[in-house]
Design goal:
Largest sheet: none
Number of domains: 1
Radius of gyration: 18 Å
Number of helices: 13
Oligomer: single chain
Strand content: under 5%
Distance between the termini: 12 Å
Order of helices and strands: HHHHHHHHHHHHH
Helix content: over 70%
Length: 282
């Protein structure tokens, strides 16, 4: 039962993060990436903070594992920066599958350090999902877009593979709400030096942009909450792979609404990712 609950929560994370990537693209088309990053993380953290019933626990978290949370906050800020830069340049149809291939790194770390042992069927399902995600990055001629923006997307993939692995223990110890609130607020703090260096005015957002970044903070934080809760119920190697299937929806949103191009190979990749999720749930 716990495994099924973890799988369902990971699926919720995948759906919510797909919406988050879509809102990210809309926000980046209207505002500079560092301002989007700061406001989205700030509002996401404040919303999670407001939902915590026992506010007295907040200070104990930083006194108990402050350095660890600082590390995770720095990793998240760096990963978000690389994601935003690649999404702004390439769109979500291409970059989302690459970013979410971070599950490969998380699975390897989970097997090595947490001694997790996925079944053969789960290994095959994970291989199918990851192969499908990689197929989504290919163009008609079968070549990857090996340019500067692709390298940023690949960097986000590596950073988040490590980040998701490291977030399991603190999210279980402190609970999803407290963990997400801390990470989001720290990530916002780490974006402040870039805002100062670029001499940006933080609070001069237009009303529709402000609504977008608040929504982005809500859905991004919601995805982290679902992922944190899922890790308490199922192995990180399974949870991370299911959550990484968000491109199955985000690519469709990019194509149908943002009019990004999708070829036959990418269509097959989406179908493969969905089928892999069904297999891993067996």
């Amino acid at each position: 039962m716990a495994l099924l609950t973890g799988i369902l929560l990971a699926l919720v994370c995948a759906v919510v993060w797909a919406v988050s990537e879509f809102v990210t693209k809309l926000s980046l088309d209207r505002e500079e990436k560092w301002k989007v990053l700061f406001h989205a993380q700030l509002f996401g953290g404040l919303i999670a903070l407001a939902l915590i019933p026992d506010k007295a626990r907040i200070t104990s978290v930083f006194s108990f594992a402050g350095w660890y949370l600082l590390l995770l906050g720095a990793l998240n800020a760096l990963g978000m920066y690389f994601l935003y830069r690649s999404v702004k340049a390439k769109g979500i149809a291409l970059t989302s599958p690459i970013n979410n291939a971070s599950a490969v790194i998380t699975v390897i770390l989970g097997v090595l350090f947490y001694k997790e042992s996925p079944t053969l069927l789960q290994w095959l399902a994970m291989a199918l999902i990851m192969g499908s995600i990689l197929a989504l990055t290919l163009r008609k001629e079968g070549k990857m877009a090996m340019d500067k923006e692709f390298s940023f997307s690949a960097a986000a993939m590596g950073i988040w593979g490590v980040f998701i692995f490291l977030m399991k223990q603190p999210s279980i110890i402190f609970g999803p709400l407290l963990f997400v609130a801390g990470i989001k607020l720290l990530t916002a703090c780490f974006s402040v030096p870039a805002l100062i260096r670029k001499k940006m005015k933080v609070w001069n957002l237009k009303r529709h942009v402000l609504l977008l970044v608040i929504l982005l903070g809500l859905v991004d934080g919601g995805g982290f909450l679902a992922l944190s809760a899922a890790m308490a119920q199922a192995p990180v190697s399974i949870v991370s792979v299911i959550a990484s299937a968000s491109p199955a929806l985000s690519v469709l949103l990019g194509v149908l609404i943002l009019k990004e191009k999708l070829d036959r190979r990418q269509t097959l990749g989406i179908l493969g990712a969905i089928f892999g999720i069904l297999l891993i749930a067996l």
